[in-house]
Amino acid sequence: MAIMELPDFPPKADLLTEIYQPLPKLTATVDWDALDASTTAEQVVRGFSTALEGADKNALADHFLADQSYWRDTLAITSHLRTFKGRDVIELVLTEQNRQRRIHGIAITPGSAQIVAASESLKWLDCFFTFKTTAPQATCTGRLMLLPQVSEHGPAHWKVWTLSTWLSGFDMYPEDESLLRTPSKPLQQSGEDHLSTDVLIIGGGNAGLLAAARLKALGVDYLVIDQNANVGDNWSLRYDCLRFHVGNSFCETPYLPYPQATTNGLTRDELANQIKRFADEFRIRVLHRTTVKATAYDNESRSWALQLLCDKAEKTVSCKHLVLATGVGFQGPYMPELPGVGQYKGINMHSASYKNARLLAERGVKSVLVIGSANTAFDVMEECYDAGLRTTMVQRSPTYVIPMSYLLHPEGLGIYDYVPAEIGDAITQAGPLAVGGPLLGHAHAKLAAAEPERYVDLAKAGFQVTNCTQSDLVAHLVDRCGGHFVDIGTGVELLATKKVGIKSGVSPTSYTDSGLKFTDGSTLDADAIIWCTGFRGIDIRQGLSGILGDGAEAIQNKMDATWGADAEGEVRGLWKRHANVDNFWIFGGGTAQHRWYSKVIALQIKGILEGILPEAYRDVPTTSSQ
Ligand SMILES: Cc1cc2nc3c(=O)[nH]c(=O)nc-3n(C[C@H](O)[C@H](O)[C@H](O)COP(=O)(O)OP(=O)(O)OC[C@H]3O[C@@H](n4cnc5c(N)ncnc54)[C@H](O)[C@@H]3O)c2cc1C
């Protein structure tokens, strides 16, 4: 499938060079042991509140670091997902938006203030606070990260390094969890074949079902459709040995915790069973074996009309909002088209079709080439080796490798083992990427620097490693939705001890009768080739016609690109209103993003349906200093 030329809209920024900033270093001397975190944070919050509510611009600006300050807002004040940088811009937008939102009741969250240390040269005072807005009437939450600044006279001044604010709920329309367990009210039907609903969600994987539950808890009518036959098939149809490579606490589903799992790293079946439990428990309405044949938006009625193919029957559906939740990287499997494919006599498949190594062995396979070097390639490689197959991994270029133990560390995503998921998400999802990315990278780099020998044997065996001092997890996730390898131990050992072969620094150029030929002219033979080469791309516009059918083109040309960060470090096209397509939502990501952004999307939809969500603030303010 050819890649279409589509506008780079909004323009993609380079996360590492344009968005990430070097972490600040402490300039003021503070007796951290003697610091009364609660009293100090409370004073700052009170001062911030007085300045904001009193519209005292100078006092408000004075709360922030001059250049290295950030404010990220998720719906609370801008009714959008925005990040602002620098004292003057932050003051300008806060003041302007506060005229509309009328913020009041800012109060520190009791017990939330604490000192956090990333290193000896970077410690900060951290606290949460709550506030209200009048228009719309809403309850919001915020978080401050405060750095001490040198003061000529007396103790250090505390300045805002980052401010994060987010909408917790509309006061008139609070989330009601009891609605989750009541049956969804019947869909409006006119005749046999026409349905109408407030929200149609395409895709009933974790993202789609969580969004449905959030909407249900807000009393919003919805329908989920999915091409699969059963809830959970988004996991069950994948390869048998799939397991997650993060802590279980990071993966919790809202409203319904996982049953106590024994070890970290949820298995495919645990993932499938949990999402089935979730859908059953909350009676989520899903129409299975259903795809979209055609889609159109009517500007006048501000509603969508879709033609569905349900099994073999056709139905039409009208809805006010359309949510696309069809998968994280969105596109179909990627397998390079190489000459000679017809001449290869072995088994040739993408990892999306791979089930297990036993099936290969039963078909007489004795040797296998695993193309790729990220998570799936390692899963497949290990299983093939365990099944007694002679296994070789082919690595095109260096792979970013992060040990799972780093992901379990409390300075990183392991924070979820110590705080409820909602607080973990506030810390990892609600803040500016410009700060959150480098902080997580710093924690990982520190751990990697403490064990420089960790991958020496792996490198000696020929596998090219980019370690955590050299690259960054968030950049991999935002720019590529993956491509990294989380080391859980066994795969690295198999390569380092040469139980599994490695061919590195080459790409396949063509098939031979018995294997592959590579860019260096060499060949490798194998009875099977498994392409663990990922998916076709991360911009959902490229595959939109496969999801929306006829009519997709009109939307494709107007909608935002997906994934990659924009000039503010906001992920493009996901979880928020698009600039040029109304009532249209793209929902993708990993498990923490499902949990956090399902609520973000549901609140926006509820707000629009009730007519209380203000226009998204889209200005790009500049100040005289810029
Ligand atoms: C091997 C692997 C390992 C992973 N490891 C981790 C990890 O360690 N930690 C982590 O947080 N995340 C991990 N992830 C990523 C992530 O959590 C999942 O990919 C995520 O759950 C995606 O959920 P989703 O609902 O967005 O998409 P999916 O699970 O892909 O669900 C999409 C649904 O949409 C349906 N659909 C698609 N197209 C159409 C269409 N045209 N019409 C109708 N229905 C359609 C599909 O049938 C499917 O049910 C991993 C993913 C994989 C594949």
TrEMBL record:
Q: What GO annotations for molecular function exist for this entry?
A: flavin adenine dinucleotide binding; monooxygenase activity
Instruction: Work out whether the entry's keyword set contains Ligase.
Output: no
Q: Which InterPro entries match?
A: Auxin_biosynth/cation_transpt, FAD/NAD-bd_sf
Protein keywords:
Oxidoreductase
Give any Pfam family that matches: Pyr_redox_3
Q: Which domain of life is it from?
A: Eukaryota
Kindly give the PANTHER family that the UniProt entry links to this protein: FLAVIN-BINDING MONOOXYGENASE-LIKE PROTEIN (AFU_ORTHOLOGUE AFUA_4G09220)
**Could you identify this protein by its name?**
Related to flavoprotein involved in K+ transport
